[in-house]
Amino acid sequence: MLSFSSTTVKSLLLKRRLCFLLKLVCFVSSVLIFCEFLIYYVIIFRCRWPEVKGGAHMGEKETSTSVLKAMILADTHLLGEIKGHWLDKLRREWQMERSFQTALWLLQPDIVFILGDVFDEGKWSSPQAWAEDVRRFQKMFKYPVSTELVVIVGNHDIGFHYEMTTYKVNRFEKVFNFTSGKLLTRKGINFVIVNSVAMEGDGCAVCRTAEAKLVALSHKLNCSRQKLDHSNKRCSDVEKLPASEPILLQHYPLYRKSDAECSGEDSAPPEEKNIPFREKYDVLSREASQKLMWWFRPRLILSGHTHSACEVLHAGKIPEISVPSFSWRNRNNPSFIMGSVTPTDFSLQKCFLPYESRVFTIYCAAGALLVILILAHVQLLTPPFYFAQHLISKRKAV
Q1: Mind listing the pLDDT tens digit for each residue in 241-296?
Q2: Distance of CA 349 to the CA centre of its chain
Q3: Is this structure's pTM higher than 0.85?
Q4: Domains of the chain
Q5: Contact residues for 80 (Cβ-Cβ < 8 A; gap 6+)
Q6: What is the per-residue DSSP string for 225-285?
Q7: How far apart are CA 113 and CA 186, in angstroms?
Q8: How deeply is 116 buried, as exposed, middle or buried, from its count of CB atoms within 10 A (0-12, 13-18, 19+)?
Q9: 242 with 299: CB under 8 angstroms?
Q10: Of 84, 302, 361, 397, which has the fewest CB atoms closer than 10 Å, so is most exposed?
Q11: What is each CA distance from 11 to 18, 124, 368, in whole angstroms?
């Protein structure tokens, strides 16, 4: 009889332990699934495409087909084999992959622009390392046939001007079909793609080629804006393009003294805002910036490189948006830009990704709760209810 009773007690204890273990596994799994998967849906679901003001005058059907939905991000900085620790790679690339794939699924953009510094070590990576980095990028940033991906070159992809070679530029162009001075026209909207690393102005081979393409493209665009005039022989044989004022896409920002005038929660930290920018390193030179403004007279300029957000007006009327880094390695609060664009107007909206500090706080709170539950289960920590009950019973006994 005693043997039977002992067996029953042991069986009950085993069931309780298994039940408790199952609860712990469910708790840990739920926290992991939320922090590593669901949180991206929760955060990005709140983002909405901005409305274009000019679209109010058009019919509903016409508006939906004429507005281009563009997603813009920058500075993913996929780590390479030299400086990249495997755990850092795993964490950052998972975060960016989940954010990007979730955004594509929820927002369904027509086109995605990545404004340079796709890789962190493209400037010095070997052919084998480059191929591996490209393979990882294509896995992380895969996209459906309904979406177009356009990648602009940055200094970390081919090196700063003194590191840039024709081989590195060609290597990048082969993978991403990138060409400096390329015009991309979608739904009557002109996008001009610039290799800003080649805007050094010193006459290097890559610089000469890039500038010649930009000048030729500028001529085409300017001729397309003019009314048909048979007396203008310079434009008589030029291919006509949509008359829409172009949007400039590049990695380096146009020249500005610093980020002192930038504001917002994802602008540069206060201690960095007043640090002067170096021409041809942090921003384009004054001369190169002036050239691009003269050549294209853009209605909007989109750039990256600084890893922080900023909005400035050039010549008092042309806005430039510096898009912050998409990687948590560079920011606690990465984001991307959502743009609704028509041939005559545009509207931009920022979509923030989960704050890493908040994810870390959730993990810490869950870890603390897990420790308390385990200690309470093994009776090393008296649950508050029983502790209070014990105090009350002692007082009654007295």
Answers
A1: 888 899 999 999 999 999 999 998 999 999 999 999 999 999 999 999 999 999 99
A2: 13
A3: yes
A4: 34-358 (3.60.21.10)
A5: 119, 120, 121, 122, 125, 129, 133
A6: HSPP-TT-GGGTTSPP---PPPEEE-SSPPP-S-STT--STTS--HHHHTSPPPBTTTB--
A7: 13
A8: buried
A9: no
A10: 397
A11: 11, 63, 30
Instruction: Provide the residue type at 201 as one letter.
Output: G
pLDDT at 231 over 60: no
Q: List pLDDT tens digits, range 160-217.
A: 998 999 999 999 999 998 777 789 999 999 999 999 999 998 989 899 999 999 999 9
Look-up of token digits 């940033």: 141
Helices (H) and strands (E) in the chain, counts: 12, 11
Please name the residue that has the structure tokens 């002192």.
260
Buried b (16+ CB within 10 A) or exposed e, 354-383: bbbeebeeeeeebeeeeeebeeebeeeeee
Q: Chain centroid to CA 390: how far?
A: 56
Q: How far apart are CA 33 and CA 16, in angstroms?
A: 25
CB of 110 within 8 A of CB of 147?
A: yes
Buried b (16+ CB within 10 A) or exposed e, 266-284: bbbeeeebeeeeeebebbb
